[in-house]
Write a structure and sequence with these properties.
By secondary structure, the protein is an all-alpha fold. It is built from six helices and no strands. The chain is globular, with a radius of gyration of 15 Å.
Amino acid sequence: MQELGDIFAIWDSVRDMSTAVNRPYDTVLAWRIRGRIPEDAWQDVIDAAVLRGKRLTIAEIMAVNEPLKQRGRRRRVEARAN
Protein backbone atom coordinates (compact mmCIF):
# COMPACT_ATOMS: atom_id res chain seq x y z
CA MET A 1 0.00 0.00 0.00
CA GLN A 2 1.39 3.34 -1.06
CA GLU A 3 -1.45 5.57 0.02
CA LEU A 4 -4.82 5.43 1.74
CA GLY A 5 -6.57 5.36 -1.64
CA ASP A 6 -5.02 1.93 -2.22
CA ILE A 7 -6.98 0.60 0.76
CA PHE A 8 -10.21 2.18 -0.47
CA ALA A 9 -9.53 0.73 -3.94
CA ILE A 10 -9.98 -2.79 -2.53
CA TRP A 11 -13.73 -2.08 -2.83
CA ASP A 12 -15.62 -0.77 -5.84
CA SER A 13 -16.97 2.21 -3.91
CA VAL A 14 -17.06 3.85 -0.50
CA ARG A 15 -20.56 2.43 -0.12
CA ASP A 16 -19.27 -1.11 -0.76
CA MET A 17 -16.52 -0.58 1.80
CA SER A 18 -18.97 0.79 4.37
CA THR A 19 -21.15 -2.28 3.95
CA ALA A 20 -18.13 -4.59 4.21
CA VAL A 21 -16.86 -3.01 7.44
CA ASN A 22 -20.39 -2.57 8.85
CA ARG A 23 -20.10 1.20 9.29
CA PRO A 24 -22.39 3.98 8.04
CA TYR A 25 -21.58 5.31 4.58
CA ASP A 26 -21.05 8.84 5.95
CA THR A 27 -18.51 7.54 8.45
CA VAL A 28 -16.42 5.74 5.84
CA LEU A 29 -16.67 8.72 3.49
CA ALA A 30 -15.33 10.92 6.31
CA TRP A 31 -12.36 8.54 6.69
CA ARG A 32 -11.55 9.03 3.03
CA ILE A 33 -11.94 12.80 3.20
CA ARG A 34 -9.84 13.08 6.38
CA GLY A 35 -7.21 10.72 5.04
CA ARG A 36 -7.25 8.37 7.98
CA ILE A 37 -8.99 5.26 9.19
CA PRO A 38 -9.54 5.32 12.96
CA GLU A 39 -7.77 2.71 15.02
CA ASP A 40 -11.00 1.16 16.28
CA ALA A 41 -11.90 0.25 12.67
CA TRP A 42 -8.58 -1.27 11.60
CA GLN A 43 -9.43 -4.89 12.37
CA ASP A 44 -12.79 -4.63 10.60
CA VAL A 45 -11.07 -3.17 7.52
CA ILE A 46 -8.42 -5.89 7.59
CA ASP A 47 -11.02 -8.65 7.96
CA ALA A 48 -13.15 -7.22 5.14
CA ALA A 49 -10.09 -6.96 2.88
CA VAL A 50 -9.25 -10.62 3.53
CA LEU A 51 -12.76 -11.57 2.42
CA ARG A 52 -11.96 -9.83 -0.89
CA GLY A 53 -8.73 -11.78 -1.21
CA LYS A 54 -6.45 -8.89 -0.23
CA ARG A 55 -3.74 -8.99 2.41
CA LEU A 56 -3.72 -5.90 4.61
CA THR A 57 -1.87 -5.31 7.88
CA ILE A 58 -2.09 -2.83 10.72
CA ALA A 59 1.38 -1.60 9.78
CA GLU A 60 0.16 -0.81 6.26
CA ILE A 61 -2.82 1.13 7.58
CA MET A 62 -0.59 3.04 9.99
CA ALA A 63 1.86 3.88 7.20
CA VAL A 64 -0.77 5.54 5.00
CA ASN A 65 -2.91 7.21 7.68
CA GLU A 66 -2.63 10.97 7.98
CA PRO A 67 -1.29 12.04 11.38
CA LEU A 68 -3.96 12.62 14.00
CA LYS A 69 -4.71 16.32 14.36
CA GLN A 70 -5.36 17.94 17.71
CA ARG A 71 -8.70 19.65 17.88
CA GLY A 72 -9.18 22.99 19.52
CA ARG A 73 -6.10 23.10 21.73
CA ARG A 74 -4.07 25.24 19.33
CA ARG A 75 -6.89 27.75 19.02
CA ARG A 76 -7.33 28.01 22.78
CA VAL A 77 -3.60 28.52 23.31
CA GLU A 78 -3.47 31.16 20.56
CA ALA A 79 -6.51 32.94 22.01
CA ARG A 80 -4.88 33.13 25.46
CA ALA A 81 -1.67 34.48 23.93
CA ASN A 82 -3.54 37.39 22.33
